[in-house]
Structure formats: structure tokens, C-alpha cells
Amino acid sequence: MPELPEVETILRGLLPKIKGQRINGVPEDGSKVFQMDPELLGLHLLGQVIRDLRRRAKYLIFDLERHRVIVHLGMTGQLTLRNPGKSDSDGFLRHPVTGLQRTRQHAPDRHTHFQIHLANGTSVLFRDVRKFGKVYLFDVLDGSAGVLFARLGPEPFSEDYTLKCFLERMGTRKLRIKSLLLDQRFIAGVGNIYADEALFEAGVYPGRRVRYLRKYEKVRIFKAVPDVLRKGIVAGGTTINDFVDSDGQVGGFQEQLNVYGREGERCYRCDSVIQKTVVGQRGTHYCPVCQKR
């Protein structure tokens, strides 16, 4: 699933190319990704100007003149820009389950559920093979978009993300630290990849109970979370199977991963064998020496 760095990478790629553009067409296919009658998209969005594109956690928010379109990429969702002045890729590298794996610009296909055609001739394409992504439509005046974000925790780069708040929100919980980091009510935007990487950087075993963590370990985790997220953004996100940026390019952070997806390989720090376990029903990677139980 795309996490904060992947969504931020898409935002940074799309924003300068679509901001200020007028919407000329909104083709859709009526799939289950739409959390409203999809015909409303064409009815309401046609002719509006995209004023801004923002991110909240793993959501992308298209701010229009009278409406907001909010997109969650789900497991395999992709948002790319199609430029008629460029050639489409002749072929995709496909994965038998998730579909598009690595490609540059592509033409709409049966997995492209939503398109925004812009006045300058370009189009934003939302493609999602497994259809776990979601598209929402809200009126800017009724404020109902806030219901999506009401229970989200602080962003790791926001002013609300302070050590005092972090420690207070941790408290003496009984759950495991990996599960807490994945809870979007605790911190918004962290998923499986970056939770594993942050805990490795902090030197904390993912299965440790929060209530038994020492304060210095909590401080390490507090610092490690934004650190690994920032590295992920700089690298353009992590491509394991499906993630591509707005230009169809793969990310680069998978080349820098210390533990995630590296079970059976040697730790770069201590040369021990990276192991995999399950924490909170999620596959979890760790170094048994750098992250002692």
C-alpha cells in the first residue's frame, strides 16, 4: 500500500502540472472505487478549475472551486499524468495479481476507473487493479470532508508532532509497538514498510509491548519515524510491486531498505541474518542483533 512518502511523491509531481487547469472532461467506469454516484463527478466537476492539490496522511485532496475530490490509493492505486505530446509506453511489466508493475506514461485501460481531462490537453488517470482505492466527492461549503480525517493522528512533519505529545499518546498501552505505529489514529501516514524501517533505525524489536519500552527507546522511535519518511520522500518512494510516481517512474527507496523485504539476507550493520515474523497480522522484518527482544 502506498504510504506517506509515495503519496507525497505523487503530489509533488502532479501539483505544478495541474494547478490552475480547468477540467474539460471526467470519464469514469462506475466501479466500486467511487464512494458516491460516479455520474455526479461529470455533473459537478466539469468546468471547474483545480486550485490546489494537498495531502493528508495517505489521502490526496484535489481542491476545486466548489468541490473537493479526495483519493485514497488503496493497495494498488496509481495516479499518473498522461501528456498527449508524449508517447505512451508500448508495454507494461505485469504482475499476475496486481497488474501494472513498472511503466511510464500509459493509455487508459480496463483498470483505469477515473480520468480528469484538463484544458491543456493532459489527463490525470486513476488506475487500480484490485479496486481497494476510494474516490470521494465533497462540497467545499458543507465541511463534510472533515469526517475522513477526524480520527487521524498528527502528521510526522507537522507542529503537532512533538515529543511531549508522542509520549503522552503512547502512555502505558499493552499493544506491540509495530501495531501502534500502524494505527493511523496514533500517527498518520505510516504503513508496514516505514514502520519496519523506523524500528530498525531506533533499534527496537517490533514485537515489544509499548508499556515496557524505556523512555530513551521511545525518543529514538519518535526521531526515527520522520527520519525514514523523509528519506523515502527524497528517494521518490518505495516500489515493491505497484507504486509509480505521476510520470510512471518507479521509486528508489527500495534500494535503501535495511530490513523490509530482506528476510534471509545479511544486516548491513552487524552481518546477522534479517528475520521475518508476524506482528498484528502483518509481516514484519527485523534484525535479531540490532533489535534485541
Architecture overview:
With 293 residues, this protein is an alpha+beta fold. The protein folds into two domains: 4-148, MutM-like, N-terminal (N-terminal domain of MutM-like DNA repair proteins, Alpha-Beta Barrel); 163-286, Helicase, Ruva Protein, domain 3. The protein has helices at residues 4-18, 39-45, 163-170, 177-182, 192-202, 215-234; strands at 23-25, 52-56, 59-63, 67-72, 78-82, 93-95, 99-102, 112-118, 123-127, 134-139, 275-279, 282-286. The strands form four sheets. Strands 1-8-9-5 form a four-stranded antiparallel beta sheet, covered by helices on one side. Strands 2-3-4-10 form a four-stranded antiparallel beta sheet, with helices on one face. A hairpin with a 4-residue loop joins strand 8 (112-118) and strand 9 (123-127). The longest helix is centred in the C-terminal third of the chain and has 20 residues, at 215-234. It is globular, with a radius of gyration of 20 Å. The two termini are 28 Å apart. The model is unreliable at 92-101 (pLDDT under 50).
